[in-house]
Structure formats: C-alpha cells, structure tokens
C-alpha cells in the first residue's frame, strides 16, 4: 500500500475508531469514576495550557510558496508570519482541462505532503514515481482530500491546506502530530479514467 494510503486512508479508520470510542456505555448505574476521562484530561491539559501565540491573521493560499511545474516534485515553502487556516483551502496553481472530478470518479493523483508545524515533507508520490489511485468521495482518503479534490481537472496542480478536523484530528497518524495542519500539492494525472 502506498504511504498516502496509510496516511490518508488511516484517517477513515481513525474516524471510525473515534466514533466507536465516543459511543461508550450509557449505563448510569455504574458509580465508579471513569479512568479514561482522567487519562484524557492529563494528555490534553498540557497542550491547552501552552497554546501557540497567534500571529494575528490566518494564512491564505497565496501565503504558501510552491515552485515546480506540473509533473515534477514541488518545493513547498510555508510562511512564518500567519496562523494555519481553520478551514479547508484549495487553489488551482495550474489549470487543467476537461470535466471536473465528481464523487464516485476514479482519480490518479501525484502529491507531496508537508506538515504545517515544522515544514517537513512527510510523503511524496513524486519521489516514488508512482501516482496514487482513489475513488473520490469513497472514504478511502482523509475528508480534506474527498472535499478538496472535487472539481479538479486532468492536468491541474492543486494546493490543499487541510485543517486538523479534515485530516487526522486530535489523534494524529503515521508520524503526523495530533492537530496538525496538512499542506498538499497535488497533480491530477487523470480524472474519471
């Protein structure tokens, strides 16, 4: 399985596990305190006690530097003068052609992933020389991809800035820190084929 399948696809498994974990017992007859709640408080309290100071504005797609042409590995440069966006941001850096992708269509994508907190490249299909195949809207990838690739055309290079709630959330995955904002540059090798 491609690394993206492990990284992005795990988001679906994590979401299901979170949903199941959140569906704990409604049994009110138990008088024992929940050790799970106490443990969760201990884990989350330090992160909340020392929040990152705001830089005064949220970044936009125009704040992200991307160099390289369609089909080549991009160089992604993140700014240090603004906060990560709280909503999904998409921007076509290279316009493609043909019909835009819709849910249920097959996509063949190349991508590079950089994490916001440290600007490190975490994964790249460009480096492997093998595009990633997925069915758009099929839950095979993180919600940020299922939502952010709608309308992408063959030949498009699209920037996706994915907030934590559309990525891996509070749990993180495969070397991705909890509550991490993800920055992808994606090339649509083919749409619907």
From TrEMBL:
Q: Recorded E.C. number(s)?
A: 5.2.1.8
Check the record and name the Pfam families matching this protein: FKBP_C
| Keyword Isomerase included in the entry's annotation | yes
Print the keywords alphabetically: Isomerase, Rotamase, Signal
List every stretch annotated Disordered. Answer: 29-61
The chain positions of domain PPIase FKBP-type read 104-192
User: Which reaction is the catalytic activity of this chain?
Assistant: [protein]-peptidylproline (omega=180) = [protein]-peptidylproline (omega=0)
Give this protein's Gene Ontology molecular function annotations: peptidyl-prolyl cis-trans isomerase activity
What InterPro entries does the database record attribute to this sequence? PPIase_dom_sf, PPIase_FKBP_dom
Q: Where is the signal peptide?
A: 1-21
Biased-composition ranges, Low complexity, are 30-49
Q: Which PANTHER family match?
A: 39 KDA FK506-BINDING NUCLEAR PROTEIN, FKBP-TYPE PEPTIDYL-PROLYL CIS-TRANS ISOMERASE FKPA
Provide the family line: Belongs to the FKBP-type PPIase family.
Entry protein name: Peptidyl-prolyl cis-trans isomerase
